[in-house]
Structures are given as structure tokens and as C-alpha cells.
Automatic annotation (TrEMBL):
The keyword Transmembrane helix appears for this protein: yes
Pfam families for the chain: Proton_antipo_M (PF00361)
Subcellular location as annotated: Cell membrane; Membrane
Domain NADH:quinone oxidoreductase/Mrp antiporter transmembrane intervals: 140-415
Annotated protein name in UniProt: NADH-ubiquinone oxidoreductase chain M
Amino acid sequence: MDFNYFLTLLVFSPLLGILLLAFMPKANESGIKMLGVLATLPSLILALIAYFSYRGGNDLANFSEKLRWIQFGGQGAEQSGMFSVNYELGIDGFGLIMVVLTAVIATLAAIASFHIKREWKGYYMLFLLLEIGMLGVFTSENLILFFLFFEITLIPMFFLIGKWGYYEKEKAAYSFLIYNGLGSAILLIVIMVLFARTGTSNIEMLSVMMNTENAPLFAPVSESLKMGLLIALLVAFGVKLPIFPLHSWMLRVHVEAPPSIVMIHSGILLKIGAFGLIRFGMGIFPEQFAELAVLLAVLGVINLLYGAFLAFIQTDFKMVLAYSSISHMGIVLIGLGALNEAGIQGAIFQVVSHGLISALLFFLVGVLYERTHTTTLANLGGMAKGMPLASGFLLSGAMASLGLPGMSGFVSEFMHSLDYSKKCQSLRRLVQSASL
């Protein structure tokens, strides 16, 4: 099978849906909603083709694409390939998992969006633009292209929250924009410093140049500068994850955004933080990342305990899930702090597991709200009588979120008990006690 421009088709196929929606009458509610769902299917089908092709023995390198895009520095730089920004798409194992997860949740969220009661045309056009941004983030092979797709996710999210959200939707939208905008600004500074010092934005080349003695750099990159850049990345992606105390914006979004959008936000967008830390932090600055391992583990424990304790005292179902997400992202940080194979695998498994669980739970939040017009826990008693199927799925999702043995949430937590088996005794006890 020829995979030329396969990833381009995968990433930009929702654009066809946007163009078709632009010519549809605004009053055609059923047609707009149906087209909005159908427009997510090509990306889902292509993502599954890529996954099963890989499982069948196809090398992921066959999916790579590279085109000359922007050139700085004149003819000499053009010949050497330095100071050029190429259109580069590709996927590794983690990226493939995230692409499939994104495509699956986007389709489910598009179906869940049937509850949207006004301005369906604008909603689905922004929704599909958001999907393009998310798919682009997980397939970008250079930092500048990654940043552009990263920013594409912010614009539609701002309007989807601010226009189709609930009572304090504007406050939630601006809080989202301010926090994530600051994170984006920090990320851009890191990218520009790396580009100026190395002459490249290619992630693989940066990984090699940052970890090779006497690499042909255009300006020296000291160990202290590397550490400073890694800390900046930790802050930028820590906002997205989110890491305590950079989390307050996320609580507002979970409460005020439509459930279908929170499915995307909690299931996919939060995971960009973990993806960035693994792909860029650990990939480009491995030695400095190792020096921050204990800090990551401690931050993970704080996230885990803070989110869990506050989830217990909430009276609104959406707030329970919001604090639960903070707690589960702490498990990801703990896995990364282990700096071993089991820890990283556990962190990635937690990313995927929480993505599916949170998408399911917020889908059910939308179902409950449509039937009861409330998400207050005290008012949801006895719902199993009238909604047995939804109650069954809700119980399954809750048990998985709790990490019950046999459920997906248990695997990553169990792996973390192995992650720290060879760590110092105090850190091992701290992590294992927090996990319990």
C-alpha cells in the first residue's frame, strides 16, 4: 500500500466537512448534525488503517512526509538544510496511539453533540477545526509545525466554550484562553531559542544535537540553559496537563463547557501535556529530565492526593470528574518520574485509559443532564430505575476510574508499584502510599 500523503489526508480530512457545512442552510439541523458526524469518519478509518497496518508489520517510517516549506538564511542555508522549516508529518508508537484515541473520541463527541440546540452549523465547523488541530499535534515532526497545530486547538475551544457553554461560559472561556495562551507563549520562546541555537526545528535532529558532544551548533547551549528550557517546557505543558497549582482554569472548563466538548478536552487535550513532556522534554533533554525526576514524582503525588481529596467533597458530578482528572494526571507524572520502562509504559497506559474513561463519563453527564436538567449529586438518586443502561455504564466507568482490579485504571497504578521498587525507600513509600 502506498502511504504517500496518508497522514496529510488523515489530519486534514475534516476540512472537507467544514467546506460542505459552509454551503449548507443554517436551518437544516438534522443534515448539519449528520454531516458533522460523517466528517469525522475518514480520519477514524485512516487512523484504524494505520494502526492495523502497523500491527501487520508495516514500519511507521513509511507514513512519514516531508516537504520544503519556509527557508531562512539565504542560498547557503537552503543547501545545508539549516534554518528551514519543513512540512513534516510522522508517527511513532505513542503518536499512533494518540491519533487513534483522538479519532475515536472525536467521532463519539460529534455524536454526543446532537444535544446542541442552536447554531449547529458554526458549532460543527469549529468542532472539525479542533479535530484537525489535535490530529496535527500528534503527527508533527517539527516543533514549529507542532506549535501551529497546538494553537489551532485553542481558537475553536475558546469559542466552543464561550458560545455553547453554560451559565459562566464567558469566564471559563477567557480563563482557558489566558492560561493556555501563557503556556503557548512560553512554549514559543523555547522553540525560538532552540531554533536560533541549532538551526533546526526537526524533533529528531534536536534530540541528536542536544545530546552529542561537539554538535554543529550556531551558538553554545550550556547545561544551565538546557535545564532552563526544560523547566519552561514543564511549565508550558504543565498548564495543559494540568499540574497543581496551574489547574484552576480546567475546573471552570469542565463545569461550564458542553459535555461533548469536555469529552474532547478531558479525553484528548489534557493529554497533549503528557505527550509534550514525553516527546520533547524526555526526548530532547534526557539528562536534565533525569535530574527533575524526583520533582516530577513529588508533583505527581501532590496532584494525585489533592485531586482525590477534593473530589470526595464535591456536590456536583462534573466537579467530581474534574478533580478526578487532576488526580489521574498525577499518576502520569509519577510514571514519568520513575524514569524506567515500566514507568513510561504505565504513564502512556494511564493517558489512554483516562482518555477513554473520561470520555465515557462525560458522555453520560450529557445524557443525565438532558434527562434530569441537573448534575447535582443529591438530585441524581434513584436514577437506575429510570435509566438502567446509563447507570450500568456509569458504574463501569466509575469502577475503572477508581482502578478496580480487572479494569483499565488498575493497570497503570499497579505498574507504578513496580516503577519505584528500586528507588530510594522514602520516595517509594510516598508514591505507593499515595497510590493506595
